[in-house]
Amino acid sequence: MKCGQIETVPHLFLECQFSSIINRVVLYLLNSSCEPHTVCLSEKMFRFFDFESFSSGTRYVELVLISISRFVIWSIRNSYKYKNKYFGIKYAINMFLSLLKFRLKVDLTRMKSDKYLQTWFLYDFVALVNDQVVFGDQLSFSFFNNLFNICSVILC
Q1: Partners of 135 in the β-ladder
Q2: Cβ(10)–Cβ(43) under 8 Å?
Q3: Contact predicate 10/20, CB 8 Å
Q4: Helix or strand or coil: residue 85?
Q5: pLDDT interval class at 123 (50, 70, 90)
Q6: Could you give the C-alpha distances from 115 to 2, 56, 88, 100, 118, in angstroms and in order?
Q7: DSSP label at residue 134
Q8: Separation in Å, CA 36 to CA 3, 33, 56, 147, 152
Q9: How much is the pTM?
Q10: What span, in angstroms and rounded, lies between the C-alpha atoms of 29 and 27?
């Protein structure tokens, strides 16, 4: 990324200040507690080794959130490295939330309704109103900016 550190997998996805904010968004959405300014996603968790203790619905949500966040980090890294374009954390969080909303809509059409409810309603990401998906307040950038005060920490 733009931080000037040696690019390793643990640094890129877990330790970098840019990635740590994306990870805090993921942890918040998973209802996980984490001390401020630390990353609670271990390399072991990142590599999907310790999910056996969770229910299949919980594991699915965690894998979706981690996969989307890793895609966002990797895409922004590649834009900077190969196109010399830098996108800030505001762009990254908005990209993450847009991809998550898209996934929620896709899952609504491909999952049985009871499975969808068991999987996504647990986290209050969505509600169904007249058979339409309505996203929870926590799926907006302003919610996370207010929660983490992101724009004062990193230039958006």
Answers
A1: 126
A2: yes
A3: no
A4: coil
A5: confident
A6: 41, 11, 36, 17, 5
A7: E
A8: 20, 9, 29, 11, 15
A9: 0.78
A10: 5
